[in-house]
Design goal:
Length: 427
Amino acid sequence: MGLGHFGGGVSAARWLARQGAEVTVTDRADEHALADSLAALCDEPIARFHLGGHREADFRHTDLVVVNPAVRPGSRFLEIARDSGACLTSEIELFLDACPARIVGVTGSNGKSTTAAMTAAILEADGRRTWLGGNIGTSLLDRLDHIGPDDWVVLELSSFQLWHLSQGVRMPEVAVVTNCSPNHLDWHQSYTHYRAAKQRILTAQDAEDLAVLNTLDAEVAAWGRLVRGRQAPLVAADEVPPVAVPGEHNRRNALCAATAAAAVGCGAEAVLEGLAAFSTLPQRLQPIGEIEGRRLYNDSSSTTPDSTVAGLRALEGPTWLLAGGSDKGIDFGALAAAIAERACGAAFYGAVRNELRRQVVARAPSLPCTAVETMRDALSWCWHRSRPGDSIVLSPACASHDQFQNFRQRGEKFVELIRTWTAPSDG
């Protein structure tokens, strides 16, 4: 249910079909919108594709429904499946149940991709065969035949993925929580629901499992009472050297990764080597290059106000911000204050552009800012007001779904604009 574009739906359909299941793929999107995913399944023994909308009959006459994490709570089709006696699962649950390796799970409102990748880098530096996947964009179902019991798997886990997990599912032996602040409230409907989804990575563990909490985050620091097994104390900041990626938030990500790796027996040298070799992930304050003296950064993965605030604080020197997109029900107050304090100017685009501009102007009436329709318009506005030595950063603070399929497509479009950029003469 929900083939999607990120690969999890494709991998689940492929893996189940190869196990001998009779697989129906159903999605509200049509063939054109799903062309990339359908192409990846063209040679697989899929029984049928029902696209352009779900059919009740598919959910009444099935044994198992594999739910895309983006499917919202309360879906009537899931209720039909439950009432008809079907089991509900997800791609990540299929993997958790079948994976023979030891698993480190990483979640949080911000920084989970970077922390997961840092943890994998340290494990590899310690000589361990390591696999990185989950919400970071790589389904490992296709690699199950190559994963052994002596290997390590690091999974980034979103609130959607955690919420959809069944009761009693095998959970990661090591749970890492980077931080927690309001996010995806358009999906979860309340911060209480969102927080409970994140906390499942702890509350569903066994007594012999291990938890790593970023106790520098006030919210997460209070979650120690939820830990059912052992809690590894966060390593001291002076035990981890500076990392190549900028920002205090990445320093905290490194502390979480180092704590998790050390807790499973990685040596100090491996921690230092793994972090030293780590470089910025795509679309996370990723330097794109320099044009006419202006430094350009792609931070499209920043889909929350907190992550954009962290990005603004990480960049040095005059900074021009492109932000906007679709509303996830999150308050913009702290973001507007940070923009007023840290940015030379800001161009807001997409569905929330007017609200973002209103809040910034209320705090800093003299700060240059504008509300425009598209990301290209925002880039043009920032370009004409910036000077050599300035930075221009795409750090949207919002979901992408008003104008793009996902944050990756948004970031790729930004990079494409930069690569082909000719500053419009009309400004």
